[in-house]
Amino acid sequence: MGKPVFSQRGSGEGERIRAVMGGGVNVWLRCLTLLTVVSLSACADLCGNDLVATTISPSSHRTAVVFERACGATTGHSTQLSVLSRSDALPNDPGNALVVDDRVRLDVRWVDDVTLEVRLPANAVTYKEQSRIGPVEVRYVR
């Protein structure tokens, strides 16, 4: 086996290699960076919320919104709860009060304007249980 032979400066093959590796590397890095940015921005909003129920507070100032959230094929559904101002639309965010694994039934009722009662199955697996959202106390009953 002989040693590899490299083209010397000025020969056609060596110039082509330099053209591809010299200026071309910069172009390839820019393309790769652009592709990465576009891919990440496309993945930023894979989750979606599907409204299940809305319960309005006695004074009509707030709503308790039960919804299901899914974030693509590799994650399961979850049942979630957000306490919002009546004028606010449900954002494409996780629930601010409750996040329960899987699809479960939640019974939600306002005790008064600042107390919300949430009934959930005894075996429900919760990832988030906030006891207060702003001035609203959230009570969980299993």
Automatic annotation (TrEMBL):
Record's protein name: Uncharacterized protein
Organism field: Lysobacter niastensis
